[in-house]
Amino acid sequence: MARHKPLPLYRNIGIIAHIDAGKTTTTERVLYYTGKKHQIVDVHDTKEGKGSTTTDYLEQERKRGITIQSAAVSTEWKGHQINLIDTPGHVDFTIEVNRSLRVLDGAVVVFDGVAGVEPQTETNWRLADQYNVPRLCYINKMDRIGASFAHCVKGIRERLGANVLLCQVPLGSHDEFVGMADLVAGVGYIWKGDDKDSPWDTVPLAEIAGRVSLTEVADREWVANLPKLREEMLERALAMDDAAFEKLIESGEFDQDTLKRCIRKGCVSGKLVPVFCGSSYRNKGVQQLLDGVIDYLPYPGENGGIAMVDEDGHVIGDQGVVDEAPARALAFKVINDQFGTLTFCRVYSGVIKKGDTLLNVTRGKKERVGRIVEVQANATKEIDEVRAGDICAFVSMKETETGDSLSDPAHPALLERMRFPDPVISVSVEPKHRNDVDKLSTALYKMVKADPSLRLEVDKETGETVLKGMGELHLEVTIDRMRTELGVDANMGKPKVSFREAFGRSVEHTYTHKKQSGGSGQFAEVTMVFEPLESGSGVVFADEIVGGRVPREYIPAVEHAVTVESREGQIAGYEVVDFKARLIDGKFHDVDSSALAFEIASRQCFREAQRLSKPKLLEPVMRLEVVTEADYLGDVIGDINRRRGTVSDQGQKGTQAFVQGFVPLAEMFGYINFLRSATRGRGTFTMEFDHYEEVPANLVDKLMEKEAK
User: Fold this and answer.
1) Which residues define the annotated binding site?
2) How far apart are CA 131 and CA 549, in angstroms?
3) pTM higher than 0.70, yes or no?
4) Which residues contribute to the annotated binding site for GTP?
5) Of 65, 241, 570, 608, which residue is 20 to 30 A from 704 by alpha carbon distance?
6) Each residue's pLDDT tens digit, 477-529
């Protein structure tokens, strides 16, 4: 069966932003204006039980009024198919943004017109850079008191390092926000009302000043500078094409189609970031944003395909987005519920039909494609085949997990994997009813399989089941979802911090393992040097044996011993990180030496060397931002200092004041209660993991006691 639409008529895009910037509200308007739904549900109504938005359909999302898991919807605009993913803004659910950006071709980054660039915006922007995703910016909430287009644009330039291209400029702000000037088309759009079907007048740029009456000086300046802003936009956009730029310089003439083509070229290559504005809640600017998605964001494959890698992760080729190639797809999300498993996939090449057999190259297992569905948030529609560039879900795949590569069994290829963050917080989990032990184990396994930022362990000493995640909300929501989706109730223990350990200094140590009790004995001697490395370096093993002092066949046993032993340090049993282990010498016996003997010797060598190095305990340090009224700033800063934190920046965000800093996670449990009390409920905060830092020696015992309780 032939392709329904040519590839250039597809757009796979994500909507990403900090929490409360208006992603879900914008998605609702997109679905309304593209004819996908006939009624708009606002996010604040979901908290009152009046229904749910299309993409925030989970009970936990409706209760909290936030997006928790990314949801995919497909719609059409002006003959183009748009596959859209609405992602969460809360830092605890960054994994959802991570895996969505991995498979998308473009992104719309939404900004709160008052707050501008916020911490999670920066995190998401870095992820988009990492996956080379072209993006355009949409400055939302221009109708709010304190909205400042200039503040937002400055933040995008300075904090995100983006080469901003102003395609639109707002006409007014807060109560006076009536529309925007389109610098590309050379016209202004002035809305006649706030209703979702309200029409707008299209006015030439030169006539805008006479049509709008603005009281704010900054708003009047934007309107007065429109001719100059348009000239700047033309020069910077047409500079993407030498011939078009020369024509502009020589005659002042340009072609509208050429201008859009140049902006598109700059956007797709990442050299330009087009900026739009509007107010999704007031129904202004969403149609123009959709035009921008079609005009400037790439179709599947326009910005290149996906890297193919070997088992060690080294790039060995590139898979373009074409139908005439072996079938290759990347699983980027798994959802489990009582009805089965949905495996979300992005198809990069070839055609996959119902009934086909695919090879899970990551795990070496074959999977049969029983059913293929197109997903509309929590609804599905069965389809017979998918092609290069499509996003779909396969039903009831048993072996496939997030990040796995699926391909034609005759042409296996491993696609570049995603990188997932390490959890920083853990809780013990037990069933509410004693008879539910097995059900709890199954439910936890399903949740961890679906969310790679969760980890599951059993505490060797207490036998407790321990669930690790990205934050208190992340773990709380996971336990709640087990109840609503899988019918398993569980009790959650007190959150605990995921500490790390490190070598305090370089140590050279020799350990000899001897065991003789009749018959063949065991003998191995290793001399190793353990050196601390910079934060984030991981565990590095170096074989520096010369002259056969340790036979080649025993080296892997030494490396394995170091890797395994590093998972449990000598201070309090936490993972040991960021060190280099150099095997420099050793001895063996022709008869009594074995891989097992060398593994035992290496393990003991590691343990004793770490103790001798005066080991350090490391704790996760969080990047904190608090936004509140200026009157309460002194109390907030004083409290940060009391929590062993440091303040890195403070200033104004619209009418609000903000303070940024770094605080140990161990001091931040229950912080929301302090903040509500200190700011009379007016303060908000965001927190994300930043780095590990050494715990002061005088606090190690105190912290360990606290964790043991």
Assistant:
1) 17-24, 86-90, 140-143
2) 45
3) yes
4) 17-24, 86-90, 140-143
5) 608
6) 888 888 877 888 888 887 778 889 999 999 999 999 988 766 678 899 999 99
